[in-house]
Specification:
The protein is an alpha/beta fold. The protein has one domain: Rossmann fold, CATH 3.40.50.720. It is built from 13 helices and 14 strands. The protein has helices spanning 20-28, 43-50, 55-58, 73-76, 97-118, 132-135, 154-159, 163-182, 205-214, 229-241, 258-268, 294-300, 307-320, and strands spanning 8-11, 32-37, 59-63, 81-84, 124-128, 145-146, 185-191, 193-195, 219-221, 224-228, 247-251, 254-256, 281-283, 290-291. Strands 3-2-1-4-5-7-11 form a seven-stranded parallel sheet, sandwiched between helices. The radius of gyration is 19 Å and the shape is globular.
């Protein structure tokens, strides 16, 4: 019989656009979940978690700041597994991108890992990375399909001011090195742009990108790959529960250019004012074809949802929550999560 703490796990950044879904799936599977948030008493950001089936019995929300040393020590003690999902998804900074974007990403991850190392119970850690840790290079060919063997270039990230990509690259490399040194199983999941049903009623940065497109934005990021929220959550659970899981996994279901996406969305959602293909300006155009998730499919057996389902679920949830009538002034907030 499994030990009791094998059913106790921690999810960092639990109220976020992505992290809410692993929390939901873990509760459905009978896990006791410790979710870290900035303010457990802020119902505007946590009520959607408290309403999940099983939350009353098996969800605890605890306050933790990523960059506060030792903040996770007591939280992860007693947990068998940790899902480190928390991250600041931003492209903007006030003064210094290194201290405002890169350092918090790297130091926050190391802070969580150090807590896991000091614990006496944590056996496996699943960390959320991003395809920005894969795609930022200047030596790709147009037909290249990127997989886990490819890393973003730190120099290229700095030259192109892709600070979020630099933070994610350095963090994921540190995570995998930590796994080698600590004896704790560490797996990383690197999703492309995440699309799907919002559990909260807040248009977080990733959801705001889709919201902007539906509201007629003419600047589009060439994300190159797309994946359903639920599939990313599934990838995290499979990486945690499958004894054979190891290393890094790219998690991307569909390869599609920004122009192709604009054409798809304008035909699929004609009632929304989506910019036409000849109106859009593509930011960060992809210099490659897309991403490969063959390792994730072969090792862990994931089956991805369709492009239609991921966008239908996203658009329907935005409409249901009244977010399509929100302000159109919100700036572009994210690159692939």
């Amino acid at each position: 019989m499994a030990m009791a703490n094998e059913k106790k796990v921690c999810v960092t950044g639990a109220s976020g656009f992505l992290a809410s879904w692993p929390v939901k799936r873990l509760l459905e599977e009978g896990y006791h979940v410790i979710g870290t948030v900035r303010d457990p008493d802020d119902a505007s950001k946590t009520s959607h978690l408290c309403e999940l089936p099983g939350a009353r019995e098996r969800l605890e929300l605890k306050k933790a700041d990523l960059v506060t040393q030792g903040a996770f020590d007591d939280i992860v003690q007693g947990c068998h597994g940790v899902f480190h999902v928390a991250a600041a998804v931003t492209l903007s900074y006030k003064d210094d991108p290194q201290t405002e974007i890169v350092d918090p990403c790297l130091l926050g991850t190391l802070n969580v890992l150090d807590a896991c190392k000091r614990s006496t119970t944590v056996k496996r850690v699943v960390c959320t990375s991003s395809v920005t840790a894969v795609r930022v290079r200047n030596d790709f060919k147009p037909d290249d399909v990127l997989d886990e063997s490819v890393w973003s270039s730190a120099d290229c990230c700095r030259e192109t001011q892709m600070w979020y990509g630099l933070g994610k690259t350095l963090s994921e490399q540190a995570v995998l090195e930590f796994g080698k040194e600590s004896g704790i199983d560490v797996i990383t999941i690197a999703p492309s742009l995440i699309v799907g049903e919002l559990l909260s009623s807040r248009a977080t940065a990733s959801a705001a990108d889709i919201l902007r497109l539906l509201q007629g934005a003419k600047q589009w990021i060439d994300h190159a790959g797309y994946v359903h929220l639920d599939d990313v959550a599934e990838a995290h659970l499979l990486a945690y529960t499958n004894p054979k899981a190891s290393g890094r996994y790219v998690c991307s279901a569909i390869n599609m250019s920004a122009i192709e996406l604009a054409s798809f969305m304008s035909k699929r959602y004609p009632k929304h004012k989506i910019a036409s293909t000849d109106e859009i300006e593509v930011r960060w155009p992809a210099n490659f074809k897309g991403f490969s998730s063959r390792k994730l499919q072969n090792d862990l057996g994931i089956q991805f949802k369709s492009l239609e389902q991921m966008f239908d679920d996203c658009v329907e949830s935005l409409e249901r929550k009244g977010l399509l009538h929100a302000s159109k002034s919100r700036s572009l907030g994210s690159f692939p999560s």
